[in-house]
Amino acid sequence: MTSTTHTIDATDKALGRLASEVAALLNAKNSIHFVKNRVADVTVTVKNASKVKVTGNKMKESVHKSYSGYPGGLKEMPLSYVVAKKGYSEIIKHAVYGMLPKNKLQDIRIKNLIIEE
What we know:
The protein is α/β, with parallel strands linked by helices and about 120 residues long. The protein has a domain at about 5-55 and about 85-115: CATH 3.90.1180.10. It is built from 5 helices and 5 strands, in the order E-H-E-H-E-E-H-H-H-E. The chain has helices at about 15-25, 60, 80-85, 90-100, 105-110, and strands at about 5-10, 40-45, 65, 75-80, 115. The chain has a 3-stranded parallel β-sheet with strand order 1-2-5, covered by helices on one side. Strand 1 (about 5-10), helix 1 (about 15-25) and strand 2 form a beta-alpha-beta unit. Helix 1 packs across helix 4 (about 90-100) and helix 3 crosses helix 4. The longest helix is centred in the first third of the chain and has 12 residues, at about 15-25. It is globular, with a radius of gyration of 15 Å. It starts with a strand and ends with a strand.
């Protein structure tokens, strides 16, 4: 198989719909060579990540959680804080990561995601 590259423009797309589209491409669900126990040779590039549409009060009310692995290591931050600190690429990556299958290939697949502000 040959390497496949997909480019998605995030301008005025809802965060969840963008993340599900990217997750399906990273899983290679659109390919005739789809095998669920192998990582496909697919690279997905998301352009204009800072123009993604976050509706309602999600920037203030939605909570981004990160866990260090230690007792008491759960950090909860509003999306506005995460965007100010790390940019829109972090919330897109976190949303896509949550939509990938929970197995040993999840970390490998997320490395095929390139996000450009």
